[in-house]
Every structure is written in C-alpha cells, then in structure tokens.
Amino acid sequence: MFPDRSLRYILLVVLLPVVPCSAKDPKDRKGLTGQKLINSFDGDRKGLAGDIALLGGAYTTHWDENKGNPPKQFKDLERYFDTDEPARLKKNVRENIVFVWNVKYGVKPPDKIILVYERRADKDGNRLAVIGDGKLHFIGDAEFRAALKATKE
To answer: What does the pLDDT look like over 2-41, one tens digit per residue?
Structure first.
C-alpha cells in the first residue's frame, strides 16, 4: 500500500513543474506577444486580441509595401488582411478598436509608437496594442499613455 501512494506523490511532484501556466493573471501576460498573448485570453477578448493583431499586421504591411507611407484610413488596410469572422471584426472596429493614422515609419523608435489599440483598458488598466514592431502587446496604463502621446507628437 505505501509504495503505491508514494509513487503518486512522486509523480505529482515531478509533473507539476512541467505544467504550463495559463497566463490568466494580467502580470503573466506582460511578457507575451503575438499568438501566445492571443491564446492567453478566452471568449470575446480573445477575438478582440486576434483582430487587433490582424489589423496591426495589415498596418505594418501597408508601410512595407508603400515605402514607409502610412495608412490614412481603414480602406487603406482592407487589401492587407483576410478574416474568417468578418462580422466580429466589423463590430470590433466600430466599438473596440482605435487606429492611429498617419504614423510615419522610422521616425520614432518602433517600441515607442502605437498603431492599433484596444479602446477601453481592462479593470487593471491594461490594454492590447500593436506597437511599431508590428507585434501585439499587453501594456499598462502609464506605458500606454506615454507611447500614445509620443506617437501623436
């Protein structure tokens, strides 16, 4: 009887460190970007994260294909993305996503500019944003406000 029970405890002790965390705690999301960040959410927020990442990618592709000239409106981005959920994307663009139009490429450091972001911060003051490196990030309120101000200057 004892060997069987102790074997269970040994397996538990060995396997616990291998199990990845789910990153549901906002602090756990801070270092995540891209698809790993998207996958750390559930439900509507996961869809919103995916849409912001998609549109941020379209923004940077527009830069690349237009010699650094920024998009000026949503129509400028439409040819650079495709979605399986157009109704959700349309709703998110209308209600939950903000663009910073006319951001010049290469004028400011990429990590100091915001291209596309979540309209409302979560209860902890964090929000999703695609910054100049083209990746989706989860950033706190102070960092967000400083980057948004720098982007618009």
So the answer is: 445 444 444 334 433 433 334 455 557 878 888 999 999 9
The 10 Å Cβ neighbour count of residue 125 is 14
Q: Do 116 and 83 touch, CB atoms closer than 8 A?
A: no
Contact 60, 81 (CB under 8 A): no
| pTM of this structure | 0.81
Of 104, 96, 97, 93, which Cα lies nearest the Cα of 151? 104
Is 85 in a helix, a strand, or coil?
Answer: coil
The pLDDT tens digits for 64-116 are 999 888 999 999 999 999 999 999 999 999 999 999 999 987 778 787 899 99
Distance CA 124, CA 71 (A): 31
At 29, phi and psi to the nearest 5? Answer: -85, -15
